[in-house]
Design goal:
The complex is a heterodimer.
Chain A (H helix, E strand, L loop, with lengths): L14 H4 L6 H21 L2 H26 L7 H18 L4 H6 L2 H21 L8 H22 L10 E2 L6 E2 L2 E2 L3 H24 L1 H11 L1 H6 L4 H23 L5 E2 L6 H14 L4 H22 L7 H5 L1 H19 L3 H15 L5
Antiparallel strand pairs in A: 1-4, 2-3
Chain B lengths: L2 E10 L3 E11 L4 E6 L5 H9 L7 E10 L2 E2 L5 H7 L1 E4 L11 H8 L10 H11 L1 H5 L10 H14 L4 E5 L7 H18 L2 E5 L3 H7 L2 E6 L2 E7 H6 L1 H8 L13 H11 L1
Parallel strand pairs in B: 3-8, 3-9, 6-7, 7-8
Antiparallel strand pairs in B: 1-2, 1-4, 4-5, 9-10
Helix pairs in contact in B: 3-6, 4-6
Classes of the chains: A mainly alpha, B alpha/beta.
Amino acid sequence: MSTTFLPCGDYHQNYAQEHAWWQTKFIKGKMILLFLFLFVFIPVTANSYWISVCNMVGYTILGALGVQLLIGYCGQLTLGHGAFIAVGAYASTLLILEFPWPQFMLDWGIAYPVSVIIAGFVAGIWSVLFGLPSARVKGFYLILTTMAAQFITVDFLLTQYVSQIGGRGQAFSLPLGTIKIGPWVIDSDLKVYYLMLILVIFFCIVMANLIRSRVGRAWVAIRDNDISAEVMGINVVKYKLLAFFVAGFIAGITGAFWISNLAAISPEHFPWFLSLSLVGVILIGGVSSIHGTIFGAIFMVVVMELLQLAVMPMADTYPKLLMDFLFIKEAAFGLAICLFIMFEPNGIAYRWQQIKNYFNLWPFSY
Amino acid sequence: MILKINNIEVKYHEVILVIKGVSIEVPDGGIVALLGANGAGKSTTLKAVSGLLNHEDGEVTDGSIEFMGERIDKMRAERIARMGIVQVIEGRRVFEHLTVEQNLKVGAHMKKKGGRSIKDGLEMVYNYFPRLKEKRNEIAGFISGGEQQMTVVGRALMTSPRLILLDEPSMGLAPLLIHEIFNIITRLHKDENISILLVEQNAKLALNVAPYAYVMENGRIVMNDTAEKLRQNPDIKDFYLGLKDHGGRKNFRDVKHYKRRKRWLT
């Protein structure tokens, strides 16, 4: 973390200005351009392949936000976040497919939004359950207990029991048209893209505001020095569990959102590697920064796709490449994390801030 | 008496007896200093009051601690903080990834309804520590040690405490800065009517600030008196102020003498 400087010659006159979101006209213009780019430019120009890549990026951002909250802001190391995404996805799917919704609710498309919110709460409570050990243990030990969440939830409960509900076998298939919000049937990548954008922007704003609030300060205080935090009258256990709940809630919504992109869900969609890669995302992007989550997700997904694009043409001559692509991908992932920890331990977000500061302070940088 | 420590006994890991019957009284609106060598148990006594012992697997096994007539020796640290006791832990523990102002705002975490607003609290702290106002948007991990100490004291003030437990506010600071911080502490005590229990290695300074002091050795209180009388006491002069009987500075050669005398004292 570092301070962002204001551009040369710009000063704050009062308290409200200092706390404003978009502090200069330049930033306002930049943000408007960004929104135009996201809402108009990408949907118009990108083909369906790149739209699906964007969806993947959005999914990763949403998933990593919860990890960012736990690791980056509250200091609770977690390696089982994929479990809560799975819980959200399954809760939403089961609610849509198995719950006896009244016909009018299905017709009006209320079922999916309601199930998304319920999925969020279910995943949040499930996450609090696995966050309980955090009252006693810290650091590496907490990693183990959160890993247990992944194995218990996905590999045991979901695979063995939940998948049997309805007698379908392994996967739940979601027929086209089941996912609709109001009259808006989500059946193409582009529609998923818009849903993704809304969710990502909404949760980024929620997170950014939470971090600036009393609750967010308490979280960072616990991460920086839990004994001092306790002396300041912060109920450490309560706030840790609250962090687990919020992270689980976001994960649940993420999972419930992601089923709109899948034709069928099965436990294989939520492997332990997903949890691991979410931690990788925030390591690459930058710990304790929301920008970091976004940059990390973009880096992770886009670089992997580019890798695929680079490898595919060679597959004609070396067919083994195609067969072992999964391993190449994982090796690249590991290499990326190693390189980032060695050369840019603060992540992409830190570099981004340096660049911004350079231009803000120009021409008087010292 | 705002704080009454009655003959407490503290054990670590259920076997190591650290505090062997310590009784301390802090009057309402008074400053009391707690002096002693390293390992005498000063910090442990403070931790017993603020409820932080359970972080180190220690507990109060005997005696009682009363704050404004209420027993607090079995309470959790966070409850004790809510009652109005705030400890400034030794070693300048700022939240190093928050800015100075955010650090102060964390102090206002348990703001009660109808109390003073965060803005007023910040004004008050900036009034006492003008240097913090200049640095308020800097990341607390990157400011100098003295400023960090000011931040920590300011953060404690933000909780609107009745009693501050100050653990070695002078540790590792330049003498000039120590004087600044101690001046502010005395001013605070006068203006805000906050009781202070001060643990300090620098006995000379502590006796200047506090009108009453306790001396600890090996987990026991060996002496307690007004600062005036303690300053005249030959043993205190000898061990803590480093003065000879006739007032001159002590020589290194006297250390042997010091060790022999000290056995008699405890």
